[in-house]
Amino acid sequence: TVFDCSIIQVAKVHSKSGNITVLENGSNIPFDIKRIYYLYDIPGGESRGGHAHYELEQYVIAASGSFNVILDDGVSKKNVALNRPDYALHIVPGLWRELKNFSSGAICLVMASHKYDENDYVRDYSVFKKLK
Ligand code: TYD
């Protein structure tokens, strides 16, 4: 459910010349990262997502700028604001998600538990509701 999704504060190595935040398999992420992708150059007013996954688990990070992630388990919805590069939203499998309200220059960085597989997507909301 949406209540299984949490925001994780990832450690920050701070210095006067800037910050580093690290995600490392087997140490501070609950699945092994098989794929990394990032969304950028998102035009104002656009939304992304609009699908669920059967198996895929993700960490979503606002590497730059801000946006909102709306999670939906078919019963409850949760709206999460991401706006800091050291916070990761853990999205568990089986949830409908939409990404909205991207700020100008936003970068949405995603760590994924599986390689890209179109068969893992549910892209029709009525199909998603029936599965639930
Ligand atoms: P999609 O996951 O629907 O994007 P979003 O959820 O951000 O709106 O993917 C959009 C397109 O990009 C789709 O045609 C498939 C392609 N794509 C890949 O080829 N590999 C990937 O790892 C991802 C995430 C998308």
In short:
It comes from Christiangramia aestuarii. The chain has 132 residues and is mostly beta strands.
Walk me through this protein's architecture.
It holds the Pfam family FdtA. Residues 4-131 form the Sugar 3,4-ketoisomerase QdtA cupin domain. This is WxcM-like domain-containing protein. With 132 residues, the protein is mostly beta strands. The chain has one domain (2-131): Jelly Rolls (Sandwich). It has 1 helix and 12 strands. The chain has one helix at 125-131; strands at 7-9, 12-15, 18-21, 35-39, 48-53, 58-64, 67-72, 77-82, 87-91, 96-100, 107-112, 121-122. β7 and β8 (77-82) form a beta hairpin. Thymidine-5'-diphosphate is lined by residues 35, 37, 39, 48-49, 51, 116.
- What CATH architecture label applies? Sandwich
Uncertain regions: pLDDT < 50 for 5+ in a row? none
The counted number of beta strands is 12
Distance between the first and last residues' Cα: 10 Å
Query: How would a crystallographer describe the biggest sheet?
Result: 5 strands, antiparallel
How does the overall form come out from the CA principal axes?
Answer: globular
Strands of the largest sheet, in order across it? 1-9-6-11-4
Continuous helix count: 1
- Report the portion of residues in β strands: 35-45%
Structural class: mainly beta
Q: Give the helices and strands as they follow along the chain.
A: EEEEEEEEEEEEH
What is the CATH topology descriptor?
Answer: Jelly Rolls
Tell me, what is the CATH class? Answer: Mainly Beta
In this entry the ligands are: thymidine-5'-diphosphate
Can you tell me the number of structural domains? Answer: 1
The helix fraction, in percent, is under 10%
Rg, rounded, reads 15 Å
CATH superfamily: Jelly Rolls
Mean pLDDT: 98
